[in-house]
């Protein structure tokens, strides 16, 4: 089997990035369903706020984002799909920013910086390449 044929068949690297981020989100979804340990590191200022219910809710939110991003990897030229994927990064940034600087349940550490860096860099990447990928 030619595994390259399973990858997005498009020009540029954004679709491959969407696929990679979607795959890592699936890992995050699984860990939220199986343990509270990593999620409590993320919300380290209030680890007691991370309950099994909150972790499962976060898992479903993450899985929803992963699904949109996975779909965007294979439909990167579709305006609606592109816009939906872009919004997932905006929402992720808004969530982690507000939990860190407004609600103060998270500290500015590696577990928080990682999704903030991914969301902001991908937002800028997607906005700067909008006309390249979306031919509407």
Structural account:
- Keywords: Endoplasmic reticulum, Lipid biosynthesis, Lipid metabolism, Membrane, Steroid biosynthesis, Steroid metabolism, Sterol biosynthesis, Sterol metabolism, Transmembrane, Transmembrane helix.
- One of its GO terms (molecular function) is protein-macromolecule adaptor activity.
- The chain crosses the membrane at residues 15-34, 80-98, 110-127.
- It is a multi-pass membrane protein.
- InterPro entries: Erg28 (IPR005352).
- There is one protein chain.
- The protein has 136 residues and is mainly alpha-helical.
- It has one domain.
- Helix content is 71%, strand content 0%.
- It contains six helices and no strands.
- It has helices at residues 14-34, 37-42, 52-74, 79-101, 110-128, 130-133.
- Helix 3 packs antiparallel against helix 4 (79-101) and helix 4 runs antiparallel to helix 5 (110-128).
- The mean pLDDT is 96.
Give a quick summary of the entry.
By secondary structure, this protein is an all-alpha fold. Helices cover 71% and strands 0% of the residues.
Number of domains: 1
Tell me how many strands there are.
0
Q: State the helix count.
A: 6
Distance from first to last alpha carbon: 35 Å
Order of helices and strands: HHHHHH
User: Quick one: biggest sheet?
Assistant: none
Structural class: mainly alpha
Q: What Rg is obtained from the alpha carbons, in whole angstroms?
A: 16 Å
Helix content: over 70%
Strand % is under 5%
Q: Unreliable runs, pLDDT <50, ≥5 residues?
A: none
